[in-house]
């Protein structure tokens, strides 16, 4: 989905705010929201890619102007509605109108000690060899995808070099509903001069992790 | 509800935009009340997570990895080779730590991490990302004009140093291993860790200074 979330290389933004305080949260509601997100029961099928697709679908003007954790709130609200466990009216009022969903009981404070060490892996065994090897020249796909994808606009139709081969990882484009299809994943590096007209004379490189179906032999 | 229907969530967002309270704090309060009422949330677990991200999971973990790598070449090789395994050994595994890649700065190479598509970050070793890392300006500019971005952080990069920008497009999470500053011979692991900054591990700071005042 070619929306405003795909920010790499867009021009017109001002300076970075480099002097923010070190504290992890700058408002009480931000901390609260992160805690809610980590602690809440989740309906089935809430993959990381469904979360990303839902966030990418926020209207561009809201995406660029709403605070980060406010975007998260909006995204989780949309996920709850999409899963049929809450309505817009319930989320707006904070009061339940229908029955409670049939989900496992929520995480307790005591369970956080184990949950904080939980790691999710996205690599999967597949029964074929990767098509590309380290050092191969590749060219990225020219077009995006109507739904969720992880090939940014700025790196489409460009030539790069395979730097690492990571085995097969779950393909985000087909994981919004948890399909779990896996493909070889590569780190591909691009010369800055291949991506940007303004990079002339620089030897800098941009590295992206790209799935095999994003790539063809150059 | 096709997985690739661009209207699937956009239409829901449109509804939410029209009906949710105008203040973020009020929206969060309403969401928490609703989830508790629906039996999906225990507020004490929310408190516990906030404590974890305020007191325990933060850049001190990454700084420990860096200090150990500076002191022990074998540790450094294992960290660069299989970072995900090393963080398990130290009890640092967790959210977004399943695939962890450490990239090393050298006199000729400077590494810098961004996520242009969302806000991917190695939470398990660096904690909650700073707002600037999640800002549209950083995400847009880091891949296109990293030298201008670094200058805003106070780092003027010489032309002979190659900058490598890592755009976190997969579930791999990147952390930069900065160079050990001169003048730190004989320092303890804790003293070394005390001078490693979060920004150095993201790659928006290149130069660390041998200043013991920052050590514990």
Notes on the protein architecture:
The complex is a heterodimer of chains A (218) and B (216). Chain A has 218 residues and is an alpha+beta fold. Chain A is built from 7 helices and 6 strands; from the N terminus they run H-H-H-H-H-H-E-E-E-E-H-E-E. In chain A, strands 1, 2, 3, 4, 5 and 6 form a 6-stranded antiparallel β-sheet that branches. In chain A, helix 1 packs parallel to helix 4 and helix 2 crosses helix 4. Chain B has 216 residues and is mostly helical. The mean pLDDT of chain B is 95.
Give a quick rundown of the structure:
The complex is a heterodimer of chains A (218) and B (216). Chain A has 218 residues and is α+β, with helices and mostly antiparallel strands. Helix content of chain A is 26%, strand content 17%.
Largest sheet descriptor of chain B: 2 strands, parallel
Biggest interface found? A-B, 121 and 100 residues
| Apparent shape of chain B | globular
Radius of gyration based on Cα positions of chain A: 20 Å
Give the helix proportion of chain A (percent range): 25-40%
Show the helix and strand layout.
The complex is a heterodimer of chains A (218) and B (216).
Chain A: H1 28-39, H2 48-56, H3 60-65, H4 68-82, H5 88-93, H6 112-115, E1 123-124, E2 137-140, E3 159-170, E4 182-191, H7 192-195, E5 205-211, E6 215-217
Antiparallel strand pairs in A: 1-3, 2-3, 2-6, 3-4, 4-5
Chain B: H1 7-19, H2 24-37, H3 43-56, H4 59-71, H5 73-81, H6 83-89, E1 100-104, E2 109-114, H7 123-126, H8 131-134, H9 136-141, H10 146-152, E3 162-167, E4 173-177, H11 189-193, H12 198-202
Parallel strand pairs in B: 1-4, 2-3
